Amino acid sequence: MAVVTFDPAAFAATYPEFASVDPARSTSMFMIAEQSLLDNTDNSPVMAADYRTQLFYMLVAHLLLIFGAATPTAPDNTPPGRISSATEGTVSSSFEYNLPDGSSMAAWYVQTKYGALFWTATARFRSTLYFANGSSGIGFARAYGAVPFNVPGGVIAP
Q1: Domain range spanning residue 133?
Q2: Residue 113 in contact with residue 139, Cβ under 8 Å?
Q3: Dihedral of CA 44/46/49/52: which sign?
Q4: What is the pTM of this model?
Q5: Tens digits of residue pLDDT in 8-67
Q6: In sequence order, what are the residues at sequence separation of 6 or more whose Cβ sits closer than 8 angstroms to the Cβ of residue 12?
Q7: How many angstroms separate the CA atoms of 19 and 26, rounded?
Q8: 115 and 149 assigned to the same domain
Q9: Closest listed residue to residue 17, CA positions, set 51, 80, 83, 61
Q10: Are 27 and 93 part of one and the same domain?
């Protein structure tokens, strides 16, 4: 499995609203994403390098907006949710984005449309796998990338 290397030019081509962002800044956001948000090693649950590259681009766009990298040529920091109410006198608006139950990190990701897209695209990787051993129904759960372990009763996980 390959490790993703960040390409600022390819990122800017994918998200042209960030074309004027300094490549050093977008590379810095990639490094933050790589070190703290998405595994970029052979143990990553996202095994396809092309798919992982697109996920990293979503994260970089999300981080650029979170950290205020929006420029006059990239001012799009619209909320990902729908407008649930609006007033005109003294200007007021409310936005709604329904989060899945039990997702504590979702609120941080859905602050931007790029983060919301990342959160949705990675939903399948935020679960465990259950392996049943035979017809007994006894099995084990293992997270993606976890090393094999022994289950009580002498059953050895693959």
Answers
A1: 128-158
A2: no
A3: negative
A4: 0.66
A5: 999 999 999 898 899 999 999 999 999 989 989 888 888 888 999 999 999 999 999 888
A6: 18, 19, 21, 23, 26
A7: 10
A8: no
A9: 61
A10: yes
Question: How many Å apart are CA 4 and CA 53, to the nearest integer?
Answer: 6
Outline where the chain has alpha helix (H): 8-14, 23-36, 49-66, 106-109, 113-121
Dmax over Cα atoms in the chain, in whole Å?
70
Residue 41, CA distances (Å) to 5, 8, 34 in order: 11, 20, 9
- Can you name the residues that pair with 82 across neighbouring β-strands? 96
> Quick check: 107 pLDDT over 80?
no
Q: DSSP 3-state helix, strand, coil percentages of the chain (rounded to 5)?
A: 35, 15, 45
Please indicate, yes or no, whether residues 41 and 81 belong to a single structural domain of this protein: yes
* Amino acid (one-letter) located at 86: A
Token pair 């007033």: residue = 87
Question: What is the dihedral sign for C-alpha 95, 98, 104, 106?
Answer: negative
Q: Is the dihedral of CA 139, 143, 144, 147 positive or negative?
A: negative
Which of 49-58, 77-86, 130-139 tops mean pLDDT?
49-58
**Contact of 44 with 53, CB cutoff 8 Å:** no
139 in the same domain as 112: no
